[in-house]
Design a protein that fits this description.
The protein has 67 residues and is mainly β. Helix content is 0%, strand content 27%.
């Protein structure tokens, strides 16, 4: 929240793709969270919120490249 790192779990972190329905991120218990989303196409945005507030820099527009 407010750009500050969190050293513990327990927060409600939600992830949404292109403003769609949010999914809950998995709490890893150490201040990090994990979520998987799938997008079709090379242009999309990802919004991440913590306790209902967008995290710093959200929404994000990832760069997609062929590997």
């Amino acid at each position: 929240a407010q750009g500050n790192p969190v050293g513990r779990g327990g927060e409600q972190v939600m992830v949404s793709l292109n403003g769609g329905a949010p999914i809950a991120a998995r709490d890893l218990g150490d201040g990090t969270y994990d979520a998987s989303i799938f997008a079709i196409g090379a242009s999309f945005s990802v919004e991440i919120t913590m306790n209902g507030v967008p995290i710093s820099g959200s929404p994000f527009t990832p760069t997609v490249r062929d590997s």
